[in-house]
Amino acid sequence: MLQRIQSLYLLIAAILSGGLVFMVPFWTNENQIVVGMLDVLNEEKGFYLLVPALFIVSVVLSLISLFSFKKRSNQIINNRINIVVNFFLLGIIVYRLLNLPGETEVSEKGIGMFIPLLVIVFLVLANKSIQKDERLVKSVDRLR
Hints:
By secondary structure, this protein is mostly helical. It has one domain (5-137). 69% of the residues lie in helices and 6% in strands. It contains 6 helices and 3 strands; from the N terminus they run αββααααβα. The chain has helices spanning 5-18, 37-43, 50-67, 72-98, 102-105, 115-143, and strands at residues 27-29, 34-35, 106-109. A 3-stranded antiparallel beta sheet has the order 2-1-3. A hairpin with a 4-residue loop joins strand 1 (27-29) and strand 2. Helix 1 packs antiparallel against helix 6 (115-143). The radius of gyration is 18 Å and the shape is elongated. The two termini are 22 Å apart.
């Protein structure tokens, strides 16, 4: 059902991955230029282009899980895959920040690098709520 709390958690996860990621800064370089996801899309080449693609995959998985509310086991599986995607995304972002040449390149880290952590938290909360609903349905089925 779309009025359940896990739907709210999944919607928040989708909004964080889809919309907010393009609005918040990831870091500020030595020229005090704020670098966001659109700048990563325009400037980076190769491996770092995976970051926007993984954010899009995260949004799609969250929305698929949100609208498959009748299949709770599929929701749990989609959320677990989404958690793995976000851990991989977090790893790429941290790797990028740690491999930049010295502190002169990155003078300030932005809030954008914590978005995958927030998405993981909301996905875990959604999974807990889905499992709670699953246990409730199974207990009612035993009474019939």
